[in-house]
């Protein structure tokens, strides 16, 4: 943890021969200050910083008192001022805090206050204090807060609330205003008062805002420890809105680390979290492309399980779990069951779980959620499971609970490309469709699986006019189909009028001959269905093959509808 700017300024600029060191090495040196001896020992060359000399300490005290040596000598307080400096142990931030008290009280009052409260005041154990004696500093901070709080308790409470932010974090002014539920003018008034009392620092530049010195923040955390969880919760419920993720309008919510930091803080008090943590204003949780730790995954499961995201419409977790972590003790089953425990947000429209190395256990967990719950995920319109390791058993576990429209009845887009689905899994999907699952499905992407045959679909479509009746796009690219399984049989099915809403059929990179392709093309022409992938231009496979997301290939425009 970095020490205050004051320490860096007075120690480095006036005491430590920084320029000489750079000159000796012929380059600019990176100098880091820390109060953690263990960290310093790992950093390379260690240059211990000696306590601030008494004369320089006295000069600093008078500067922050807005006084002079002549004035205090005239008032007979010179010896008291020297004694006060000695009690600061050469620490500039402590001198500044005591000087702030001296501006509103006499030096002798501050000395008496230190002696009295050294016996009465319980100094908290602060992380990172090491073997430094910060007793007088914490007493000085408490004294400043007490003096300020006599006439302005609201400002003191505002300061305490800033302790919820991480160390070394510049807090944007709009975030501060939101946390305090204050107007811009009110926020400025509070900040001016706290800055005058040297209880926080102002920062201008690219990221304007405020921050706390580490020692102040650590003390405030100890002072208000019983309120921190509720303040984290209030901050999330009030200030987190719109989107969480890299495209968030408010830059503070673009970092998933900051988001989960506050979630962890809010959930540290289980009673409070159960009662009042509600992120009503969050519509999109966009964590796609971010590798989440198991801790983050469990926090997300906790949020969902408690129903803390009642208004979320989009949850994007693509690529968040690159390692296989789902097992009996893994994280994804927790997220799946959390959708049931939290009642699955009734507003959830899109759930993206692509590229997560999910296996059958993942789908069994999600399917178990659908079986156990009532009306679970019935508002979901898009489910993306592309690029995982889902095989036949996993797909069956997912789709069978949806028969009869019992779950996911609003699903319009199902993406299953690049998995391990074979003929048995495809048959399970078709069986569920025939029994009323996904009746409003408009897009079904099955590319890069090993279906081998379309017999289940051909039989179901011939026996029921409701199978995929609203489906407009079907992607069967690179699914091991041949003339025998997708040539004449597919053409006959289309000629019967099955799949009546079909507009786009993708068949690229299958094992079909020119004769089989021509047969399908003719049937599609008669139905005015656009068939893609039968005549690709010589691009590489990844470029030419239709993606599981349904993006058009580069050569689609050259194929007549």
Observed structural traits:
3-stranded antiparallel β-sheet, 561 residues, elongated, 26 helices, disordered N terminus, single chain, disordered C terminus, alpha/beta, 13 strands, 10-stranded parallel β-sheet
Short summary of the structure?
This protein is α/β, with parallel strands linked by helices and 561 residues long. The protein has helices at residues 5-15, 18-25, 37-41, 54-65, 69-74, 78-86, 92-104, 107-120, 135-151, 153-161, 173-180, 184-196, 214-223, 228-239, 256-267, 270-276, 294-305, 332-341, 360-372, 392-399, 423-434, 455-463, 483-486, 488-495, 514-527, 541-544; strands spanning 171-172, 201-203, 209-211, 242-244, 282-286, 314-316, 350-352, 382-384, 413-415, 443-445, 473-475, 504-506, 530-532.
């Amino acid at each position: 943890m970095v020490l205050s700017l004051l320490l860096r300024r007075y120690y480095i600029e006036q005491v430590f021969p920084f320029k000489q060191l750079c000159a000796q090495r012929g380059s600019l040196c990176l100098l880091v200050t820390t109060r953690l001896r263990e960290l310093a020992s790992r950093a390379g060359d260690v240059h211990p910083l000696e306590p601030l000399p008494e004369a320089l300490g006295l000069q600093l005290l008078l500067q922050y008192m807005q006084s002079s040596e002549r004035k205090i000598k005239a008032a007979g307080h010179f010896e008291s001022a020297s004694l006060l400096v000695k009690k600061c142990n050469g620490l500039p931030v402590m001198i500044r805090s005591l000087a702030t008290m001296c501006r509103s009280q006499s030096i002798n009052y501050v000395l008496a206050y230190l002696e009295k409260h050294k016996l009465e005041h319980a100094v908290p154990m602060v992380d990172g204090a090491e073997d430094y004696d910060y007793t007088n500093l914490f007493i000085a901070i408490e004294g400043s807060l007490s003096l300020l709080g006599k006439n302005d308790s609201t400002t003191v409470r505002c300061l305490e609330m800033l302790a919820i932010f991480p160390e070394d974090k510049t807090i944007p002014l709009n975030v501060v205003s939101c946390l305090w539920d204050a107007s811009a003018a009110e926020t400025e008034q509070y900040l001016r008062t706290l800055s005058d009392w040297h209880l926080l620092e102002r920062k201008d530049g690219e990221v304007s805002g405020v921050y706390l010195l580490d020692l102040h923040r650590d003390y405030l955390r100890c002072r208000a420890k019983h309120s921190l969880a509720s303040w984290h919760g209030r901050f999330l419920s009030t200030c987190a809105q719109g989107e969480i993720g890299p495209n968030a309008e408010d830059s503070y919510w673009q970092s998933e680390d900051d988001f989960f930091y506050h979630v962890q803080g809010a959930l540290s008090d289980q009673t409070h979290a159960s009662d009042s943590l509600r992120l009503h204003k969050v519509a999109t949780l966009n964590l796609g492309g971010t590798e989440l730790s198991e801790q983050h995954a469990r926090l997300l499961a906790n949020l969902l399980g408690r129903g803390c995201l009642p208004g979320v419409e989009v949850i994007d977790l693509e690529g968040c779990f690159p390692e296989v972590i789902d097992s009996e003790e893994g994280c994804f089953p927790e997220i799946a069951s959390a959708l049931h425990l939290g009642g699955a947000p009734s507003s959830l429209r899109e759930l993206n779980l692509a590229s997560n190395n999910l296996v059958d256990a993942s789908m069994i967990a999600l399917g178990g959620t659908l079986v156990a719950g009532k009306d679970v995920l019935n508002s979901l319109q898009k489910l993306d499971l592309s690029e995982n390791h889902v095989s036949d058993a996993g797909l069956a576990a997912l789709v069978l609970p949806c028969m009869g429209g019992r779950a996911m009845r609003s699903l319009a887009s199902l993406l299953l490309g690049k998995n391990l689905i074979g003929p048995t899994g495809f048959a399970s999907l078709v069986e569920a469709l025939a029994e009323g699952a996904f009746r409003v499905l408009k897009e079904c992407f099955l590319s890069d699986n090993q279906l081998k045959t379309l017999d289940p679909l051909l039989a179901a479509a011939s026996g029921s006019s409701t199978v995929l009746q609203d489906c407009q796009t079907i992607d069967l690219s690179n699914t091991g189909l041949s003339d025998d399984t997708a040539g004449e049989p597919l053409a006959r099915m289309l000629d019967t009028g099955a799949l009546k809403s079909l507009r786009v059929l993708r068949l690229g990179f299958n094992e079909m001959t020119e004769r089989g392709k021509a047969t399908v093309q003719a049937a599609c022409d008669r139905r005015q269905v656009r068939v893609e992938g039968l005549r690709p231009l010589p691009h590489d496979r990844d470029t030419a093959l239709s993606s599981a997301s349904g993006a058009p290939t580069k050569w689609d425009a050259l194929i007549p509808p």
